[in-house]
Amino acid sequence: MNANCTTMIPLSTSKALRISMIYNLTVALIGLPLFTWASWKLWKGTFAKMFHKNIRFIIQMHLFGFILHCCGRIVLHSLDLYNYMLSDPCEMIPNIYRCFIFRLMYNSGMWITTCTAIPLIIERSIATHLRGRYENKYTWLGMLAFLQPCLAAVPLYFAYANLKFDGVFMPYCSIYKPGSPTIANINSVVAIVSQILARGIFGYLFHLNKKYRTIMQNSNLSTRFQLEQNKNSFHCLKIYANTSTIFLVTQIGSFMLLLDASREMYWQNYLALMELNCQFPAYGILTIGLVTYRIAKVRNQIHSNLNAQRNLDGKHAYFLNFNQQIGTEQSKF
């Protein structure tokens, strides 16, 4: 029995690795159409149009990261499971180029979603600073969405910098090897620190917008509409800010512990836990569910507030006040 067979037999017969891949393949297959649906609703949904286009550009890149990750993951796990169940272990050595392409999709999508917080915080900071003047303007700032793949390219470069193609035996498609955690740990620490800082800034902006909305109740109609739009956007994005912080700190922290403990583990068990730890499709599904629930709640609250205000002094008084506001705005032109 040659060395390749000796390495591949434990991998192909590992129940833990098979269960991990089957689970992750199932979640990715569920997530892929869901992320595609969310992308469609982001641009065609009625309530989604209340979000500024720049937010939607950034969220679209975030969803693209999930789609890219799921596509790479579906191909990798499907091929591995097929080989493990139906092929001779001595003949199932993964092709290095196949590993490179689809694992790059896997990791690129993962890092694009991880880097969403930074451009989102920049966009929300600008929206807060330009309150009353940001509505349907400055759409060129949607280019901030391209900051996500640019930021993602940095950890990907360090992870793939020493990758070789010629004469390499790669029994499993993975770039982070047991016992060599330095680059992975550096990338992980930077990601955790950036996420925590972004969550802190988001909280500050959230409370700042609440303050502006309170002290600017007598501003013109356009400014009040922008402040209300900012409030609704922040309420929905707060779900993402909280879930992403909890997930990334937990996932990346576990990843670092797993790398450190990998020297004392069987390789097949290490790979099974590594795949199981990378729960980005499940995290994306959960986030979409929570944000969809929040959007429905905000929409119902808006309808309730409008009905309550309209019935407060009677319909005539409501429409009279509304017409006066329109007249005040038109007199400025």
UniProtKB/TrEMBL annotation:
Coiled coil: none annotated. It is a multi-pass membrane protein. It is found in: Membrane. The chain crosses the membrane at residues 21-43, 55-76, 143-163, 183-206, 239-259, 279-296. One of its GO terms (cellular component) is membrane. Keywords: Membrane, Transmembrane, Transmembrane helix. It comes from the Eukaryota. Its main location: membrane. This is Serpentine Receptor, class AB (Class A-like).
